[in-house]
Amino acid sequence: MGVLPELGLVRSDDLGRVLASVDAEHVPYAGGTELVPAMGLGLRRPAAVVDLKRVEALGRIAVDADAGAVEIGAAVTHRRIAEHPGVRRHLPVLARAAGRVGNARVRSTGTIGGNLCFAEPRSDLACVLIALQATSEVRSGRGARTLAVDELVIGAFETSLSADEILVSVTVPFEPAGMSYWKLQSYERPTLGVAVVVTEDRWEITVGAAVERPVRTVLAAGDSAGLDDFAAGLDIGADLCGPAEYKRSVLREHLRTVLETAP
Amino acid sequence: MTGQPEAAPVPDPARPPRRDAWDKVTGRARYASDAAMANMAHAAVVRADRAHACIVAINADEARRAPGVIGVITADDLGDLGRRFGHIVCDHPILAEDKVRYYGEPVAAVVAETPHEAADAAERVWVDYEDLEALTTAADALASETLIHEESYAGPERGFLGVKPKADTDNAAHRAELGWGDVDAALAAAEAVVETSAAFPLVYGYAMETYNALADWQPGGLHVVSTAQHPLMVRKELARIFSLPLAAVRVEVPYIGGGYGSKSYTKLEPLAAAASWATGRPVRVDTDVEGAMHTTRADGAHVTVRTGFDSEGRITARAIDIVFDTGAYADNSPLVLTKSVNRCFGPYRVPNLRVRGTAVYTNTTPASSYRGFGAPQGALAGEMNMDMAADRLGIDPTELRRRNLLEPGGTVISGKRGLDADLTADLDAVAAELDRHAGRGHEPGVRRGRAVAVTASDAGASPISTAQVRMHADGSVTLLTSSTEMGQGSRTALAQIVARQMGVAAAAVAVGQSDTLYTPFEWTTGASRTTTVVGLAVKAACEDLWRKLRAMAAESAGIDPDEATSGGGSIQVAGADLAPAAVIREWFGADAGEAVGIGVVRGHGETALLPPFWEIGAVGVEVAVDETTGEVTVEHLVTVGDVGHAIEPDLVKGQDLGAATQGLGIALWEEMVYEGEQLTNPNLIEYRVPRFTDMPRRITSVLAERGDGAGPYGAKGAGEGALNPVPAAVAAAVGRAVGVWPTELPLTPARVWALLRSAAETEAAGLAKPPTAAGGAAPSTVRGPAAE
Questions:
Q1: Do residues B652 and B537 both lie within one domain?
Q2: CATH number of A254's domain
C-alpha cells in the first residue's frame, strides 16, 4: 500500500520534551529513509512521529582529541559524516563507508541513529562501528545509559532499546592503523560487508550484511585455519542477493586477499 | 508542379532541442496523475492475497461504514456493463468474478473522499477464498489438469489483426507457428547441429510514472485521463464496455512518464470508469510500484533453438520452440508471441524453418507488450546459438553471421517487405568499434569476453495514422496527432517534419497531442512506428495543406487551381511569389482564418507492404567478470542505429542508449521472483533496475543513415532495436569470459559465480573445452574463406 496513513507529528527543539513524547506509539523520526518505507508497507503504524532533527544535541559532531574519540549525534546524516573534516581525519574508513551508503538521497537525509536503531542487517555502519568498538549513549525520561554498539544492535531489525528510549549519540574511538572496510554491493543494500584491522600479531574481523547482525572475531595473525572456521561457522542467510554458499565463498576469498596475501 | 519544399532544418537557438525539456526540468510538465476533476473521489484496490482461488464471499460491510467511504465495488456491482476486457482475448475481468487467477489481482475497489480513507477502508474488505492449485510456471501449467480459464473466449468478430482466441480450453493462451521447407531432412543432413536453450526472466517494464487513470462517467458519456500509450485502443474497449458510441468516449493522455510498451492497451481505465459509473463521481485509481507490478509485466520465455549448418558454416535449417509465461490474462501476449515467432530466427538465410510458439497462462501477473515485443526473448537463444555454433565450427562468430546474413532487399519472410537495411555493414561497424577499444591485457582476477548480436523485427505495427496540420493567419502551424509523448521526443521530431515541409521555423509549430475529443485517429504509439508511420501522415497532411493553399491562392487570383504552384516555402501565382500566410489572409479577406491539411496513412502505396519497416538491432559488448564475486561490468557497449535518416540525431541516440540500457537490465539484474504464490520483490529495492553506476564504461553510438526506410526522408523507426540483441550479446560475452554458456538470465553476481564454479569443475575434470578464448580472439577478425 503506497498511501501513508495519517499520523501525528511531535516536533520540539528540547530534548526533554522529545524524551517525554517517545513511546511505542510515538516513534522517533529523523531522516525517515527506513521508517517511511516501513510505514508505506504497513509494517509500522505509529500514531505519531517524534521529530528529532531540531534537537541540537542530536546533530553535533565533536572531536575529543584528548579522549581520542569522535562523538556523533544520532541525527547526523550520512552525508555530514562523510564530509566532516574531523571524521575524515580520525575515522577515514567510517567517512568513506558513510559516503557510500544507499544513494545520494538516502545519504542527505538518512542518519547514523536511524541506521543503527532500525537494525537492518544489510547495513554498513553497524559493521564499521562494531569493528571500531564504538559506544552509544541512550536516554529516556528515566535516565541515561551507555552501551557498546555491539550491545545496542542485537539482531535483525532488533535493538536493546526500550520503546521510551532514544539513541542520543555514538562515540567512536579514533581509527586504529591497519583498518579497512570492503563491501559487496550489487543491489540497493550491501550483500556482504567486511571490516578488518590488521596489526602485527592480530587479525580483527567484523562481518556484516550477510548475517543477522555484525559478528566480530579476533584471531592471531596468520591463523588461516581460524579464518576457515570463522567463515564456515557464520550463520549466513540466503536471499535475493544469492545463496549462503556464494556469500561465504566471496567472504573467504576476500579475507584471503586482504589478510593472507597481504605484503 | 506540386513539389514540397525540402528546406534544410532551421536551427533555432531560442528553443531547446526537445520541446518537453523546459516543462520537464522545471517540473511544470503535466502527467495523468496531475489531472483533477471537480468533486473527484479516490479508489483503493483490494487485491488478491493468493494466486488461484475461488471467491466464496466478499464482506465489505465494515469498509462501507468506514469514514469517507462512498462505495465499495465488486464484480457483482457492475450491472449490465461489459464485465471483461482484452482486445485480443476478452478474458480479463475488470474485477475478479468467481475466482482470482494471480496474487495481486483486483477483487474490489473502495471509493472514498480521500486516498487515505480509501486505503484505510480497503483493509476492511474481507474476502473468503477456496484455494485452487496454483500454477506459477509455464511448465506446471502445461502439465496440470487444473484450468486457469475454464472457458473459451472464441467467437465471431473476436480477435485482433488476424490473431483469434483459441476455441479449445487448456492452459495455452495462444499458439503460433511459422515455417517452410523440410526441417527434419535438412537437420539430418547437416554437417553440424547446434542446440541452445535459454530462459528469459519475468521482467517488469519499470517506468517512473506508474499506471493511473481518472474517469468521469455521466449519462451518455465517459471522460478518461490516463497513462495509456494507445488512447484510441482504450477508447474502443471503453465504448464496448459502456455501450457508448466512440464519439461519446473521450480519452485524454498528457505526458506519459515512460511507457516502453508496458502501457499499451487497456489497464486501469475500465476499473476507474466502472467506479465512476457506480458512484456517480469522477474517480481516480492510482498504483504504486507494487500495484504496477501487479498490473502488467513482460512475457517470460523458455526458448530452444536447433540449427543445422553445412561445412561452410551456412545455415541449412532452424527449429525453434518458444514457450511464453504469459500470466493470468492474455492481454497483448498472443500478438507478442506471433511477433516473437517472426523475429526469433534472425535476419539470416534460413532455407528450412520451423518455429512453434505457445503462450501459456500461469497464476502470475499478466504479461503483455514490452519494448522489443518478443524479439529479445527469441534472440537470447537464437543469437547465443550462433556464438555456440561459431565455437563448434571453429569460425569467428562475426564471420559466421556475415556468411548467413540476408543482403539488402532479401526476404526475411515470404510475402513481407524485403529487408530495408544493410546488416553486414551494420555488423562490420559494430565489430570495428569493439575492436578499436578492445580490452586491456591480463588483469588478475578478471575475465573478459566480447560478443556481437543482430536482430531484425517486423516493426511499425499497422500503417494506420491520421494527422491534421492547421496553418494560421501568420503562417505558424498547429499539428494535431493522437500519438502519445512518453519521453521519446515525438513532439520534437514530428514538429521538425512540419517545419521542413512547410518551410517554417520549428518554434512556429505547436503540437497538440492525444485527446480523442480533438485529435485525429492514431493506431498506436509503439513498435517504433511514430517517426515512420505518423511521420508519413504528418508529411501527407503538409502536402494536403500546400494543395489547399494553392487552391485558395488560385481562387483569390481567379485562375485555375492547376495554374498555382508551390515550392521554396511559397505559392507562385501569375508570376508572383506569395507567402502562405498572405494567401490565407487574402482568401478570408481579413487578418484571420486558417488552412487545414489532413494526412492519412493506410495499407496502401508506400505502406502497402508489411511491415512498414524492419527495425534493426546491431550491438556489441565487452564485459569484465570478477572471478571472486561474479560481478559483471560492461566495459564497452556499441550500438548501431540503422534508422535510414535521423531527423533528430540526439533523440535517436537517446532511444538507442535507453533501449540498450533496458537490455542490460534484463541481462544482468531484472527479474520478478515468485516464491510459491507470491511475488517476493514488488519494489525497487529488490527489483533491481539499471542505475548510472551500471552504465557501460564506454558507450559508442553509431548512426547508419542510408536513406533506405519508407518513412519521411528515408527514415525508419528506432526505439526497440537496440534492446533486442543486448541480452543475447551479454549472455554470449559472459559465456566466453567464464567458459560456460549461460542458460538463464539475469546474470546476477551469484549466478555468474555459479557458472565460474561449474567452469572450474569442468576444467579440473578435464571434461570439456570451454568456449574459445575468454576475451581472446577478436570477434570481428575477418578471415577470408581461404584462411578457414
A1: no
A2: 3.30.390.50
- Residue B685 forms contact with A (CB below 8 Å): yes
Residue A125 lies in a domain: yes
**How many CB atoms neighbour CB B440 within 10 A?**
10
- Do B52 and B59 form a contact (C-beta atoms < 8 A)? no
Amino acid letter, B105: E
Kind plus residue range of the DSSP H or E element containing B387: helix B375-393
The pLDDT assigned to A41 comes to: 79
Cβ separation of A1 and B288 shorter than 8 Å?
yes
Query: Alpha-carbon distance B654 to B703, whole Å?
Result: 11
The whole-number pLDDT of residue A260 equals 85
- Cross-strand pairs, B92: B85
Tell the residue number behind the cell numbers 509523448, with chain if given: B485
Judgement on whether residues B468 and B455 belong to the same structural domain of the protein: no
Domain-located, residue B214: no
Same domain, B615 and B569: no
Same domain, B561 and B588: yes
**Taking chain B, what is the end-to-end CA distance rounded to the nearest angstrom?**
58
Lookup result for grid cell 540498450: B660
Q: Which of residues B563, B585, B607 is at a domain's end?
A: B607
Residue B470 phi, psi (nearest 5): -120, 115
Asked if residue A68 and residue A36 are part of one domain, the reply reads no
Q: Is residue A44 part of a domain?
A: yes
Residues 6+ apart with CB under 8 A from B424: B402, B405, B407
The answer to whether residues A104 and A168 belong to one domain is yes
Mapped onto helix, strand or coil, the DSSP state of residue B604 is coil
Asked if residue B567 and residue B426 are part of one domain, the reply reads no
> In terms of domains, do B480 and B599 share one?
yes
- How high is the pLDDT of residue B157? 81
Structural domain span for residue B574: 21-30+462-607
Residue B727: alpha-carbon gap to chain centroid = 16
Taking the Cβ of residue A8 and every Cβ of chain B, the question of whether any pair is shorter than 8 Å is answered with no
Report the domain count for chain A: 3
- CA-CA distances (angstroms) from residue A6 to A9, A41, A132? 10, 14, 40
- The residue type of B353 is L
pLDDT along chain B (788 residues), means of 10: 49 65 93 97 98 98 98 97 97 97 98 95 97 98 97 89 90 97 98 98 96 98 98 98 98 97 97 98 97 98 98 98 98 97 98 98 98 98 98 97 98 97 98 92 91 97 96 98 96 95 95 97 96 97 98 97 94 95 98 98 92 98 97 98 95 96 98 95 94 95 97 96 98 97 98 97 72 41 32
Question: CB–CB of B749 and A184 under 8 A?
Answer: yes
Tell me if A242 and B628 make a contact (CB, 8 A cut-off).
Answer: no
Number of domains composing chain B:
2
- B495 near B201, Cβ under 8 Å? no
Q: Are residues B631 and B771 in the same domain?
A: yes
Task: Provide the sign of the torsion angle of the four alpha carbons B327, B333, B334, B339, taken in this order.
Answer: negative
Query: What is the rounded (10 degree) CA torsion for B757, B763, B766, B770?
Result: 110
* Domain carrying residue A252: 179-260
**CATH code where residue B741 lies:** 3.30.365.10
The kind and range of the H/E element at B110 are strand B106-112
Give contacts of A189 with chain B, Cβ < 8 Å: 685
* Residues A159, A197 within the same domain: no
| pLDDT attached to residue B162 | 85
ipTM computed for the complex: 0.94
**B726, containing H or E segment:** helix B726-738
Q: Which of residues 219-258 of B touch A (CB under 8 A)?
A: none
Mark yes or no for CB contact A241/B750 under 8 Å.
yes
Give the three-state DSSP class for B326. strand
Domain boundary among B590, B607, B624: B607
**Residue in A184, A189, A191, A246 to test binding to B, most B beta-carbons within 10 Å:** A246
Q: Flag if A254 and B628 touch (Cβ within 8 Å).
A: yes
